[in-house]
Amino acid sequence: MLKNKLMIALLAASGLMLSAAASAQVYVGGTVGKASWSEDCTGQSSCSTNASAYKILGGYNINEKFAVEASYFSLGTVNGTQMTPGGLDAYNLKGTGFELSGLYNQALTDKLTGFAKLGVARIKAKNNYIDQNIAASDSTTSTAPVFGVGLTYKLTDKLALRGEVETRKIKYDGDKEAVTNYSVGMQYSF
């Protein structure tokens, strides 16, 4: 009976130690920034190509060099208008999606780490538009590669600042929009 209790206690203690070690590799975070769309504004009376963007992320450090990361992101909304002989033409295009990436981390100092990111994103482009005074809406969902580079700076053992630049392509109505996202935020390791 004593052997069984001792065995159970040892298994429980080792399980707690393993879960503590594993959870030290998990992190969550969020960033905010600007997304710069490659929208062609030729012939439009007003046009925006920059939008506010944000991302919510979670990741797992496989080891000191490699991590996997999943995120939900919004690339903001760009819009444009022009008057035509048939009336007003306008659009309001928004990009959101999910992403799964692999990261390669390189420690630059004991607090500063650089990373390169390569992944795949599932992106929904939704357009609310007016075509010759008739309002309508449609959307397109596509899969595209994601490339990025960034830095993290440890404020404490668990909390770090994060800055990054990412690029994606959004497909909409036969066109491909390149969107470059510049963001800063926080990352918390468990």
Short description:
By secondary structure, this protein is mainly beta. Helix content is 12%, strand content 72%. It is built from one helix and nine strands.
Task: Determine the number of helices (DSSP H or I, runs of at least 4 residues).
Answer: 1
Query: Helicity level, as a percent range?
Result: 10-25%
The geometry reads as elongated
Helix/strand/pairing class, anyone? mainly beta
H-E string: HEEEEEEEEE
Strand order of the largest sheet: 1-3-4-5-6-7-8-9
- Main beta-sheet annotation: 8 strands, antiparallel, barrel
The total of beta strands comes to: 9
User: What's the gyration radius in Å?
Assistant: 22 Å
Q: What's the end-to-end separation, in Å?
A: 37 Å
Mean pLDDT: 87
| Parts with pLDDT < 50 across at least 5 consecutive residues | 9-23
Q: Which oligomerization state do the chains in this entry correspond to?
A: single chain
Question: Beta-strand percentage?
Answer: over 45%
